[in-house]
Amino acid sequence: MRVVRQTSLLCIICIFALLLSGATASTQRSDIEKRVDALLAKMTLEEKLGQLQQLDGEGDGKYRPEHLELVRKGLLGSTLNVRGAKATNELQKVAVEQSRLKIPLIFGFDVIHGYRTIFPVPLGEAASWDPSAVERAAGIAAAESRASGVHWTFAPMVDIARDARWGRIVEGSGEDPYLGSVMARARVRGFQGTDYSKPDKVVACAKHWVAYGAAEAGRDYNTTDVSERTLREIYFPPFKAAVDAGVGTLMSSFNDLNGVPATGNRFTLTQVLRDEWKFDGFVVTDYTAVMELMNHRLAATEAEAAQYALNAGADMEMVSRFYNKHGSELLRAGKVTQQTIDEAVRRILRIKLRLGLFDRPYTDEAREQAVVLNAANVAAAREIAARSLVLLKNERGILPLNKSVGSIAVIGPLADDPKAMLGPWSGDGKPSDAVTLLAGIREKVPGAKILYSKGVAIEGRGVTGNFDATPAVAESAARSATAATGPNSIEEAVNAARQADVAIVAVGETADMSGEAASRTSLDLPGRQMELIQAIHALGKPYVVVLMNGRPLTINWLAENSPAILETWFAGTQAGPAIADVLFGDVNPGGKLPVTFPRTVGQVPIYYNHKSTGRPPTDQKWTSKYLDVPVTPLYPFGYGLSYTQFKVGRPELSATSIPANGQIIVSVELENTGQRTGDEVVQLYVRDEASSVTRPVKELKGFQRITLGPGEKRRVQFTLTPEHLGFYNREMRFVVEPGEFKVMVGSSSEDVQEARFQVVAR
Ligand code: BGC
Q: Exactly one of 130, 163, 176, 286 is catalytic; which is it?
């Protein structure tokens, strides 16, 4: 009785606390709106347009001399790339002490996978299938950023990418909207926490809104043409997840979207974002994207470009200056309303207030010293990097390597390349902070004799084939060919391998072969790296291939012939130690592919959640397939091995039928049947067997990364709700339709067991 009374008292207190915190939040919100109103009432048109302007720094974190004058006059609201407590404080001082209205600046920077302590590239982090690790990495990145005067990160990048030719596939979470949404939420939470005015948080920016990853032919900045259905089902969900997680800003993308470039697109910027999703933060354009509306030939003049973007709902203009140059003329001509300008300013001031910049505009320089690249952050980078590695092949248990091995040949152009470890978009990361694979191995097995040889170099732009190249491409191909043929370099590597008990060969792409403006038409290992591996292979000795790359590569020969392959992406500051942890078995790899690996670039776009077609592929002639290559991928989405073995049981369902608004519980038993502790990612896929609009063959709707000791078993449970079973019908309404559903549970998108249930009409 007493217990009951105490519990109910506790409940009442909890409810009060909740109500109180809700009330405090809404008071804070209305305070913020009042402060915005008061400022807006005092601002001149020039000062308002000034808030809409963001300009780039000078390089190396510095501001430009011009910024001082603009800030003093209230004509600049934000910068990008200016960073470091000292530089940001200096410029901020001008804003808050010398400008008329003392409105602080917001400093933005691309903190994509770490500020100074660099974590795996986002595609690698997604391969961890571990949202808590991803949240932790973003949290550390936020703490380092804020301590360095950066308030705002242009991340997470949540673009779905189904085309590995597109270099920016490295910046996102891969091909799947569900995994992408989980990762988007984790990153927003990590960057922002529950209150981004805190000294270790920043405001996040979901980008690039939207469908930028659908660039035709995988060529960056290229045109996109995507149906509204595909937008809503594939490209929007990670953005919606970010908005629901409270993301403060979005970035409008460069691409032409169905004829209306995304930076001038009212449907996406206002109708979906504001009207449907109730997003109340601000949108910044991508770099010079307003100006590029003229290159798209949407706008005939600078003024028209500003008019399109402002009226569509792009609030802050990055780098080009058309809002400022033409804002007042547009207002006078009635082409943009005062209300539109005020609303854009309001949204920006709102975020500045939520960041607490008016009350605490400066950064503590001592704090910067203490936080950036501190030992705890570096240790976290090592752990998270190890979680992102994916074991693609391990023949006859060659891995993990024995630590008492006598000699190891460490070979390859990426074995000792600290810049490659960091990958593209590596913030303020310094190659000098990075520990390479060679150094990681030396540290791991100090007793072993290490023979290092680079073998070949990767230079130029990853040009592989012989084709009718343009002069620039031909010149770069010639350069890479020269670089690769150093004197007897392959021979030297072969000699090293010959003398060693085992060889570790690190190959892949350099950091600048993926990322922005880094599209490739070939997914092969660039340069002469295959030749290097084949020469090592010919020795007939054990060797392991360690891949470092920012996109799926076509590695059929390796998959068929090499004894072991470990995919390490670009694993960051602690790449070397993390990879060594996995190679020598201190960490059992448990990552899974967040993206399909094709057999050939000719299969692209290839992704697991495709539709069925009227003639699904069979051996028969008149079906949907290729003459020369199977339709299946080399490695499917969700694939990855472990040093132990797991058995995923048959899925059991809590019901055989449910109503359209009901839910169903799916449970399976997972058992570690091997000899080591390890992780398995149990994956749940769903398929609507027949519906009024055709649906994918399967869609990921749940996953859990689970650690089990040898012989250990655990029951894993998922709940499917209407959100997981529904789709947009012909009227574009989200519905769950009656009929049969298939549930698939397993260890990859292809290795699954099935169960079925019915959704019944009431
Ligand atoms: C990229 C954005 C980035 C911006 C600022 C652009 O070129 O597309 O992703 O945030 O530059 O650096």
A: 286
